[in-house]
Design goal:
This protein is mainly α and 269 residues long. It is 76% helix and 1% strand. Helix 2 runs antiparallel to helix 11.
Length: 269
């Protein structure tokens, strides 16, 4: 993100999306991990009611912001491959910046709706959450009254948002797949595939983990598996966005190498 911010030649929609994607994943991770790490070293694993609500809000906000950003990036790939001559006319940096901002707004709306609905419930009985953070399914198990209708409603909100993003991405790639064979140059075809590969990798990883976490049937033996999957998704996948996009991009790698060498080894430049 620092390299992109400092280098004017990288101020393009693609790198704007990369920064926004990395930033949303960074905040998504920080919503839970700083609270989780001290609990691993202590027997006193407490979290206040407001802290739990805040943790859930930011988790859903940045999780869905990430989904919306991937959807916008799919449309960007579609315009770049299917309408390359009109790309600068159909898109602009300010326009993409507005879409990135609206992704954050959309994520905040989903986070606010889900969190408000969950914490309107009455919690009775045990106050122990059998999870590494404040997550919707474990909290619903602590509530009493009106749970089935609310669980179905919140599930529909989350699934509708995720499926909507998925369908828009599939639509973009349907047009891309239909366009690539009509590109006359083999080199341009390879470039088109390369443009989509990084984005498609992140879509598969993000959608795959999200589907397993939210859509898998919940059985009595699923708690440990859900926890392991949730920790993997929250801790490891945020590393993938910048790594996948950066390591496959020669321009960004060269500028990062140049920036690093000029800072630490000025005589080598």
């Amino acid at each position: 993100m620092t390299t992109i911010w400092r280098e004017p030649t990288l101020h393009t929609p693609m790198y704007l999306f990369l920064c926004a994607l990395s930033f949303s994943k960074l905040l998504y991770t920080f919503a839970v991990i700083p609270c989780m790490l001290p609990n691993l070293l202590s027997n006193d694993c407490n979290i206040s009611f407001m802290a739990c609500a805040s943790q859930m809000f930011f988790s859903f906000t940045f999780g869905f912001t990430h989904s919306f950003l991937l959807t916008i990036m799919g449309y960007d790939c579609y315009v770049a491959i299917c309408h390359p001559l009109c790309y600068n006319v159909l898109t602009s940096l300010s326009g993409w910046a507005c879409l990135v901002a609206w992704s954050g707004v959309g994520g905040s709306v989903v986070g606010l709706v889900v969190t408000t609905a969950i914490f309107q419930l009455t919690f009775c009985g045990s106050n122990e959450i059998h999870y590494f953070g404040c997550h919707m399914p474990p909290l619903l198990k602590l509530a009493c009254g009106g749970i089935p209708a609310l669980a179905i409603g919140m599930g529909l909100v989350c699934i509708s948002a995720l499926l909507g993003c998925g369908l828009l991405i599939l639509l973009s790639y349907a047009f891309i797949v239909a366009t690539i064979p009509r590109i006359p140059s083999a080199e341009d075809q390879h470039k088109a595939f390369s443009t989509c590969a990084s984005h498609l990798t992140m879509v598969i990883v993000h959608s795959g983990f999200a589907s397993v976490i939210y859509l898998k049937p919940k059985g009595p033996q699923s708690l440990e598996g859900d926890t392991l999957m949730g920790i993997t998704y929250r801790v490891l996948t945020p590393f993938l966005s910048p790594v996948v996009f950066s390591l496959r991009n020669k321009e960004l790698k060269n500028i990062m190498r140049k920036t690093f060498l000029s800072k630490f080894y000025p005589s080598s430049i």
